[in-house]
Amino acid sequence: MKTKYQQEFEKDRFAKNTGIILVDVVPGYAKAQLEISEAHHNAVGVVQGGALFTLADFCFAAASNSHGRVALAIDAEISFFKAVSSGVLTAVAKEISLNGKLGTYLVEITNEEGDCIAHFKGTVYRKKDTYNF
Amino acid sequence: MKTKYQQEFEKDRFAKNTGIILVDVVPGYAKAQLEISEAHHNAVGVVQGGALFTLADFCFAAASNSHGRVALAIDAEISFFKAVSSGVLTAVAKEISLNGKLGTYLVEITNEEGDCIAHFKGTVYRKKDTYNF
Amino acid sequence: MKTKYQQEFEKDRFAKNTGIILVDVVPGYAKAQLEISEAHHNAVGVVQGGALFTLADFCFAAASNSHGRVALAIDAEISFFKAVSSGVLTAVAKEISLNGKLGTYLVEITNEEGDCIAHFKGTVYRKKDTYNF
Amino acid sequence: MKTKYQQEFEKDRFAKNTGIILVDVVPGYAKAQLEISEAHHNAVGVVQGGALFTLADFCFAAASNSHGRVALAIDAEISFFKAVSSGVLTAVAKEISLNGKLGTYLVEITNEEGDCIAHFKGTVYRKKDTYNF
User: Nearest-CA neighbor of A24 among A57, A53, A66?
Assistant: First the structure.
């Protein structure tokens, strides 16, 4: 059964259109997956950096909003380690810092063999507004 | 009339599916646009960070591959300044450093009023392979 | 004659020990300089990345605190374009975004020939506390 | 007894002047420490961002050059989580990606209580030149 958090994040149209699925979310942690198709390819036939970023960013958004307070992304950076063109990618977001105003998260994207495809870090500003899940 | 570069970059399926158009590309420079629709929204009704990143990343790819040598993204970072939910976004990529192996580019995304929505920096590794446009 | 801002920033012991001089600061802008000596070299005889970062970071701190409100660095990133081992380096910080809570700045470090040596971006969280200059 | 690697890295004048000590280095890993004094403080009495960056950057340089090939920093980014003004800081660098041309490292800086003070990521370009340790 899906939690209210999962239902909430499934309203993300861009992530949904990209084919991203939120697998798990608990406070400070989230996991998401993307099954690669040709729709994610760039001009040279590998997954576009934007598709990888979207997977990581969505996972980061789920983890950073998981405490019930609205969290807005300030910035993010991603390192690309390996080009991929097929298979299922898994992103896992973990909280490495949280205080009243700011939170920072690392997201690792791996392929089915467990190779690290990309590494992402993102920081949010935490508003006072809360979700009424 | 479209140049061969533009034709080449239009093979980017993910950027195309996202609705991104390559407006201009000359060596070391590129401009791209995205007309926002609800398909680009996240769960809270503003443009998803991944859609903004994809716009910037595509523009960066065009500028960095514009010299005719294959350029692969090593890493990229993006700062988000303002949430937007409609209108046309324009990304402009400029080269700030280029040597035999590496190139670095800044990309600014602005809305129709000229406000800076997001600022991106990306670095590529330049392979020896060349395009035969 | 030195402004109160300049006097305030000269209390930065680490920047001072590194040999960094604040040349100019006005709201949203700052310029700083460093004359390279062997004291700034790393194990292979070029300026250490930390010395370049410190120059940029100090310039960023001056620009971001220049509005009179205490600004704390959230994060920063730097790209290194060219190794240098002597001469005077100049850093110029410019504000690219400012709102009630956050500010973002680009800093460019150039050598005496005007070559771009490094490019830095930093973001601050703006506290409500003000300086009583 | 010090290894040749440690002896080599101790030639880093800027890190040495900053008071940084290389505690350990093995291929793909390094640990360094800094005992904070007022010489590392900024204008508001906490450790300057440049001092933290220098600690992380030096540790990153040790880890990335540890394979015996010359590795040059392309870029780096750091997130600051907690202001500190005294005590001993420890930086640990770990390799998260390595191929023939590029390597990426995460560096975590902790205080004596084990709190994460700052988190750093850096990427190197690996030259063909080797050290003759």
Answer: A66
